[in-house]
Write a structure and sequence with these properties.
The chain has helices spanning 51-59, 71-75, 80-84, 87-108, 112-119, 152-164, 191-205, 221-234, 249-258, 271-280, 296-307, 323-336, 381-387; strands spanning 10-19, 22-30, 36-40, 129-135, 169-172, 210-214, 238-240, 263-265, 286-287, 342-345, 356-357, 362-363, 366-368, 378-379, 388-392. With 393 residues, it is α/β, with parallel strands linked by helices. The chain folds into two domains: 10-110 and 383-392, Enolase-like, domain 1 (2-Layer Sandwich); 129-378, Enolase-like C-terminal domain (TIM Barrel). It is globular and about 60 Å long.
């Protein structure tokens, strides 16, 4: 593997409009011999555009012989510590590391999940499918006509639809009305409608299947204590991010110490070290690296391989974005041997599967990794032509 290298000279961006304010943004990094690697940089949480940062970093890679996705940091003179608190930079680096790994796996004539294992000297042939859980939240975000119904009844209907499609786990983010800090000690009044949504979704999921609840960091210490108890009574399977576990690590540690449910989170973290710390310091039970922020699929694999042997069932990859990031996440998840399911944002648009070439294949709650080298798929230029645009930096 050491003799393989990739020397990028081309950079092409594309965006596909999804609904409302959501666009799936990706790019291809190519060389003069026609080898291209892809990465997704969708980042609805960020106020600034990631593409110019990708272009700036990619310029430092032009003409260099890259033999590892770590070379993105090397040639840009970056350290993991530079990325832990800079999400914009981490997103750009993660996308580039994904694209370089994709290109190198193609050069090695291996699917990405097998390339990653061989790169690290790990034996074994990963499975070609991974179990997903259905994130129903994005299906109820505003569309191009404006806000849509987010009543408890709609939460229930979306959860029921996911169960009928073969998923055994769903997730909702129901606390739209809450913004911490809260003046009231205990459960704030704003959480009542969110709990109704949770109960409606859990009724649809049923007692033998699982409902995760994401709180989007809308609470604080006292409300976090109270909400955990309420979610336990409502039948939730995990309690995700009542506060940001990276920015408010000590508060999350205290909530975790009293939580009646497993705590999950850290979707914006970069690099193995931050996820190790969250586990070692008893901040979380489950970490949620996202390939768009954590360093790409190779770094996600390292996180899984570092944590899972000592903390089985502690890594569940976060992926509420486009089909390219889901594909990269599936490769990483398959490579480290998933215990917990991988996130998938369902029913955002009915044509989602058509964005990829070949089409994204999800059946009975399982994602099927396509045949082929590298990622095994790319964003279809026809889909970009129909629903978005393409540009060069």
């Amino acid at each position: 593997m050491a003799e393989l290298w990739f020397s990028p000279s081309q950079l092409h961006f594309s965006t596909v409009h999804v609904r409302g304010k959501t666009n799936w943004v990706s790019f291809e990094l190519g060389d003069s011999e026609g080898t291209f690697g892809s990465g997704e940089i969708t980042a609805t949480q960020l106020a600034s555009d990631v593409a110019p940062v990708v272009a700036r970093l990619a310029n430092k890679l032009r003409g260099e012989k890259l033999s590892s996705d770590d070379d993105v940091l090397k040639f840009n003179r970056l350290q993991p510590a530079d990325l832990e608190k800079d999400v914009l930079l981490a997103t750009a680096v993660s996308g580039l590391r994904c694209a370089v790994a994709d290109a190198l796996a193609k050069r090695a004539q291996l699917p990405l999940h097998r390339y990653i294992r061989q790169q690290h000297g790990h034996a074994g042939d990963p499975a070609n499918k991974v179990r997903l859980y259905a994130n129903i939240n994005r299906s109820m975000l505003p569309n191009d006509r404006g806000p849509v119904d987010r009543s408890p009844e709609t939460f229930g209907k979306m959860a029921e639809r996911a169960m009928k499609a073969g998923f055994i786990t769903a997730k909702c983010a129901p606390f739209d009305e809450c913004r911490g800090p809260h003046n009231k000690v205990g459960l704030p009044n704003c959480a009542s409608l969110g709990l109704e949504r949770v109960r409606a979704a859990k009724d649809a999921v049923g007692p033998d299947r699982t409902l995760y609840v994401d709180c989007h960091s809308r609470f604080d210490l006292n409300s976090g204590f109270a909400l955990g108890e309420e979610l336990k009574v409502a039948g939730a399977g995990w309690y995700e991010e009542p506060v940001d576990p990276i920015d408010d690590m000590e508060v999350m540690r205290q909530i975790h110490a009293r939580s009646p449910l497993p705590n999950a989170g850290a979707e914006m973290g970069y690099g193995v070290a931050i996820f190790e710390r969250l586990m070692q310091e008893d901040v979380l039970d489950i970490v949620m690296p996202d390939v768009k922020f954590c360093g790409g699929p190779v770094e996600a694999y390292r996180i899984g391989m570092e944590l899972e042997p000592n903390h089985p069932g502690s890594v569940s990859m976060h992926c509420p974005s486009g089909p390219l990031s889901l594909l990269a996440s599936a490769h990483a998840t398959a490579a480290f041997g998933n215990v917990l399911p991988l996130e998938h944002a369902v029913y955002e648009v009915e044509w989602r599967h058509e964005v990829m070439e070949p089409f994204e294949q999800i059946k009975n709650g399982e994602f099927f990794i396509p045949d082929g080298f590298g990622l095994g798929g790319r964003v279809d230029p026809v889909a970009v032509e129909l629903r978005g645009r393409r540009w060069d930096e």
